[in-house]
Amino acid sequence: MAKEKQKYYTVWVGRKPGVYLSWEDCKAQIHQFEGAVYKSFSSLNQAKEAFARDSATFIGKTKGPNHSSDLSKHSALPEENSLCVDGAWNTKTNAMEYQGVLFPDGERAFHAGPFLTGTNNIAEFLGIVHALTYCKEHPEITLIYSDSQTAITWVKNKMAKTKIATTDINLPIIAIVRRAENWLVNNSYATKIKKWQTKEWGENPADFGRK
């Protein structure tokens, strides 16, 4: 995955209004604070400038080339008691792995790999399917987060549209993908799958931190 740029957060209305350097610090000021007003910026100077001005100038608007084009008011926070999944693929070794981490506890629920071959999309796909099987055994968890829209679509379509070549070395991982597809076809689930909003919430808790 591409490396996410640093985000800075301006809190106009919250427990302690100000400028914050991480989503975690920002969340502490606005989580369950009625009427909270806040926004992410792509530079510290932008965030400080915004804090000195009326929030209405920035919320829902773009102020020219010096302001991030993807700014938006946080419409929601990550739901707690959920399961976050992420995959990692080493472009040098071709090794692949994935894991699931409980949110907000931060406890690892499962980990698989590294496998000798694979792709990032396959890792993300297998991570979601593994999470679905985990939630079958832990029905108190009703929501899975992934930051891969491609993998979410593959899961919903019950098919991994991977272009990985079928070779002797790739056969084991292709077999695992086929088993995952068969599980999706033959099992029903009520667990919701949602996109982790990295730009608003910060890095996926299941991220391997190797970017």
Query: In order across it, which strands form the biggest sheet?
Result: 6-5-4-7-8
Write the H/E string, N to C.
EEHEHEEEHEHHEH
Query: Number of helix segments?
Result: 6
Average pLDDT taken over every residue: 85
Percentage of residues in strands = 15-25%
Poorly predicted segments: 60-75
SS-based class: alpha/beta
Pfam families: Cauli_VI, RNase_H
Main location: cytoplasm
Keywords: Cytoplasm, Endonuclease, Hydrolase, Magnesium, Metal-binding, Nuclease
Protein name: Ribonuclease H
Key phrases:
211 residues, five-stranded mixed sheet, alpha/beta, three-stranded antiparallel sheet
Structure description:
Residues 77-211 form the RNase H type-1 domain. Belongs to the RNase H family. Its main location: cytoplasm. The model is unreliable at 60-75 (pLDDT under 50). A hairpin with a 4-residue loop joins strand 1 and strand 2. This protein has helices at 23-30, 44-51, 120-137, 149-157, 171-186, 198-201, and strands spanning 8-13, 18-20, 37-41, 82-89, 96-103, 108-115, 143-146, 192-195. The strands form 2 sheets. Strands 6-5-4-7-8 form a 5-stranded mixed sheet. A 3-stranded antiparallel sheet has the order 2-1-3, sandwiched between helices. 30% of the residues lie in helices and 22% in strands. The protein is of the alpha/beta class and 211 residues long. Helix 3 (120-137) crosses helix 5. The chain has 6 helices and 8 strands, in the order E-E-H-E-H-E-E-E-H-E-H-H-E-H.
